[in-house]
């Protein structure tokens, strides 16, 4: 019993080095590339959503009061805003998950 407590105390004190303890070491060197690729793709998606919002806004202004064109532009703005929100939240989720792996 005392040997277990001594081992725990030594480990907590840092006397036992990680080479002496059989702790598996993962190879997470690829996470930087994955994070970079995903951030780039989500950034492109966010830029496309922003562009769609701008184009739909121009269509909304130029609709000249026609209800069909107003509804089409309004729904495009709503869908693009939802896509933008999903894209930005996906960036946060991926960064959180890969940061904690």
Task: Provide the fold topology.
Elements: H1 2-13, H2 31-61, H3 67-99
Helix pairs in contact: 2-3
Q: Could you please describe the fold and organization of this structure?
A:
The chain has one domain. The longest helix has 33 residues. The radius of gyration is 26 Å and the shape is elongated. It contains three helices and no strands. The chain has 101 residues and is mainly alpha-helical.
Low-confidence stretches: 23-28
The tally of helices reads 3
Distance between the termini: 34 Å
Major sheet, described briefly?
none
Helix content: over 70%
Mean pLDDT: 76
Count of β-strands: 0
Pattern of helices and strands: HHH
β-sheet strand percentage: under 5%
Count of spatially separate domains: 1
Summing up helix and strand content along with how strands pair, one would put the structural category as mainly alpha
The Cα radius of gyration reads: 26 Å
């Amino acid at each position: 019993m005392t040997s277990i407590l001594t081992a725990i105390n030594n480990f907590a004190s840092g006397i036992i080095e990680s080479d002496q303890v059989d702790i598996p070491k993962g190879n997470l060197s690829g996470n930087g590339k994955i994070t970079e690729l995903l951030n780039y793709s989500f950034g492109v998606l966010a830029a496309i959503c922003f562009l769609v919002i701008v184009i739909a806004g121009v269509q909304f202004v130029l609709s000249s009061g026609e209800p069909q064109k107003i509804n089409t532009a309004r729904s495009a703005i709503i869908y693009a805003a939802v896509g933008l929100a999903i894209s930005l939240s996906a960036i946060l989720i991926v960064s959180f998950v890969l940061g904690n792996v």
